[in-house]
Amino acid sequence: MARIVLGVEYCGAGFEGWQTQPHGRTVQDCLTAAVVTIAGAPLHIQCAGRTDTGVHAAVQVAHFDTEAKRPLTAWVRGVNAHLPDGVAVTWAREVGDDFHARFSARARTYRYVLHNRPVRNVLLNGRVGWFHAPLDLAAMQAGVAHVRGTHDFSSFRAAQCQAHSPVRSLMRAEVSAIGEWFVFEFEANAFLHHMIRNLVGALVHVGKGSCSPEWMAELLAQRDRRYAPPTFAPDGLYLAGVDYPDSWQLPDGGRIIAPAFMPSGF
Predict the structure, then answer these.
(1) Active site (annotated) includes residue 243
(2) Which residues lie below 8 Å from residue 127, measured CB to CB, with a gap of 6+?
């Protein structure tokens, strides 16, 4: 029995999230079907981080066990031949059976790409977030500084979140901009359900001038989702990196981070 780990990227606009569903319209469902075609036997695929409906992955990591003996190229080119246009395997490695795509990861990085102009960008519909009113970059940078570190993120947690604890450690939380493009980037040991989209929604609230940057700290202290703004749209959210110990000999030493999203990337 071999354990194979895959690098996967996908556009979430055409899927109802990662996790398998009876109707089969998820990334896990279509990837499993393609891998099974190459393996010739049923198997189960597990990922580094489950994404919601409409959320994309520039870097997703998944693994499965199989008795099939195939060259690594078969798990890339062969599987891709059976995948829809919105999903692709980018690399494959064989690892020991003590590797786990989710539990072996030390951290994950998410990016939210936001287009800030009066009219939405129809050419990038479903690929980027959008906000119509001008946003103050300096205010959002000051606001995001308040959420760095280890906190109880109950104010940014979805009501249906099943995590046992609302405490998470944000090692990195940044906002940058080029022209009318804003990029929000977060790296943490783990995330709560809708945590990134709720943080972005609150930061946009600060950026448009409705609240001061210090309001982010007040939201954290309240530990109550009712006081935070609505959850922001999933369109611009990307799983952009997964960090593993070097010992697994994965691409880039295990710190698999997608290139920064900037306008030239679209």
Answers:
(1) no
(2) 11, 13, 56, 113, 235, 236, 266
